[in-house]
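Narrative of activities, Objective 1.

The group set out to show that a structural description can be obtained from nothing but a protein's sequence at a throughput compatible with the screening campaign. Below is one input-output pair from the validation batch, recorded exactly as produced.
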Amino acid sequence: MYDVAIVGLGCAGYTAAIYCARYKLSTLIIGAEEGGMGMAAAEVGDWPGTVNITGPDLMENFKKHALSFGGVAHRIVRIDRIDPFDYAQSDIRQKAFHLILQSGEALDARTLILALGTKKRHLGVPGEVEFSGKGVTYCATCDAYFYKGKGVAVIGGGDSAVEGAAIAAQVAREVYLIHRRKEFRAEPYWVNRMKARDNVTFVLERNIVEILGKEKVTGVRLDKPFEGKDILPLDGVFIEVGADPASGLAKDAGCALDAKGYVTVDAAQSTTIPGIFAAGDLTTNSNYFAQFTTAAGEGTVAANSAFKYLQSAEAIPSPQGRGSG
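Output recorded for this entry:
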């Protein structure tokens, strides 16, 4: 049995793991894939003390730091569900949260920190599913390299879309930035970088209604003409229309969510279920401002709160004593 299981291998999760290790808690950090949304960042310019590091490199540093401490177990595997803490269980060995893996294996922990982040939002238009991986992708900064010398479209108006368009423009022949509104929501830094590229065309106040292709993507259809055409010939479509909280496991465990699906937490990162904490992009804290810095801060607080919870009278003692794993 672990003192704490951290679900999520991103910025918030690894920060929480660092602090849990410093508190000498037996810790499991587990998730389906490394790095979370941070892996999509081609350039991280706002991590204090580090100038222009890539998202994957920053996440690798986080991982190495967390695993440099003893007592931190690391697993890459998908969790099927979380079974609630059974306070009525007479066998003290069963007084834990149970992480049930897809294989059926069960892992037990006295506290949980949920740091699952967000998942990319889809457009829901014809052709999107059919051509996923055949010209349709959800990470422009990850996949732009594969479209060197080709024509692509980036869909969206936020930071990820505008950053993606700026990055794609470095390798693609032509980039259409398609946004349903007249103005961008992105940081001025990325908007200015994108505007400096002469191969980026703004297609504003337009929506994609269909992704076209045969074996691969050949273009997109717009809801109203652009420069006299409602079809843009393309080789790739990067969908960057935001993200939704990956709160399914939290909901199944009984944690309250807000109207947008984010996990409701207090200032201590406590959820509505005693012993379950949450941190990072999936929570209601940090004013929904999804950044590396805010995620790290929430992970720090969550680890401290888990430590205090385990030290308090309300926590059920581990049958093997402190530090068991």
